[in-house]
Amino acid sequence: MKFNGFFIAVIIVLMAGIILFETKAPSYFQWNDTSQSYDSKQPFGCYVMDSVLRASMPQGYEVAGSGIMARVKDEKQQYTFLFTGHYAHFANVYEVDMLQLIEGGNNVLFAVNDFYDPYSYNYYDDNSIGEKAGFSYHTVNHVHMDNLSKDVLSDHTNHDTINWFPDNLFDAASYPINAAFCQKRLILDGSYRILATLHAVEYNSGWSYDDQQEEDSHHSAVAGIRDYGEGKGKLLVTSMPMIFSNYGILNDTIRPLVLRLLSECGNKPVVRYDPNCIDKTDSSNQESESPLRYLLANRPLRWAFYLALATVVAFVLFSARRRQRVIPVIQPPVNHMMDFVKRIGGIYYKRHDNVDLLLKKYATFSNDLRVKAMIDIEDNDNLDDELLMLSNRTGMPLDQLQRLIHDVKEAAAVMSIHDEKLKGLIDMMNDIIHRINI
Fold this sequence. Notes:
A hairpin with a 6-residue loop joins strand 9 (221-227) and strand 10 (234-238). The strands form two sheets. The chain has a nine-stranded mixed beta sheet. A two-stranded antiparallel ribbon has the order 4-7. Helix 10 packs across helix 11 (299-320). It is an alpha/beta fold. The chain has helices at residues 2-24, 47-56, 68-75, 98-103, 129-133, 150-153, 211-219, 246-250, 254-263, 291-297, 299-320, 337-351, 354-372, 383-394, 398-414, 419-437; strands spanning 61-64, 80-85, 107-112, 135-139, 159-164, 173-178, 184-188, 193-197, 221-227, 234-238, 270-273. It is elongated and about 145 Å long. The two termini are 61 Å apart.
């Protein structure tokens, strides 16, 4: 027992140490993963961002894959659709028509860094959505997103400043941001209202700029918005797609910028388009949410589970080597009642005392009648009434019962009775008791 207790204590200490080590161990992130996938927990995935926005957006937030156009037609509901990442992700999704969504009263937040026209097979086609909507991108010499790392993002010498212009929703504000997030600028036509630029531009009431300021503002714009007529939607474009990520929503400087861009699109439910998202109606593709899957998905819990299994196997192997104790067989106690009855019967047989045997049987017989039938044959004053009750109860003739009582009393008086007579009286008493029990 002492060895087993020591063994269990060592296993518990080892499990606690492994769990503590895995919990305190630094996480290794993949900074080159810029997929912005709904299930990616990497810095530039969207798992955390989607969770935060789903819990904080007042009108609702969700991630959807295919079937956006069908959803709008079926539900007759207006949304704010958020498109992030590389527009090449939408290459084979021809049913997503941005302009048709906007003309139907939906808002579109277009946060991508290149084009793909759903009506053309030519990447960077001149007839792209940017050509139709009046905007385009131009690249500046900054760190490319594929080369991002923790060291690059923590380099404060490579930071720029985003200047947000005041409007009816927000006041003017400035946001320092790493240059890697602003590798491209927007070129907007006159239908757009510029929301944010990368360099400080003096703001005048009524959006009045001189020619040089307006040229600089459009040249350095990173976010702009335009309306598509009364009753139609809005198109908001930005050249900073990677701020819509886990890193952006957790960064105290970038998060307000993300929320401002979403708020500019109006008070509508937000749907972020992710081509990798599994349709919720496709139950065959849904991932299991069992507790075991949750344990195996987290590294500390996974190793704790494996160690627990190894501990159970080791315990079984060690316990199998122990010898089984011999269980003693306990014999039931011997019933000596029959031996006692045989002995008493032998004594009566040797003495041939039939009268005493009859009287003892009669005493037992009268007691059984009193207990089981509430008939007292010892009451000489009411003996006839008691025998009448006994006759009605057993169905035996009254004179036969009276003869039984008379023979017993006569045998007790003369102190003599024959064996055949004794046997007949005892059989009669047994028959009466049997009838009462029935």
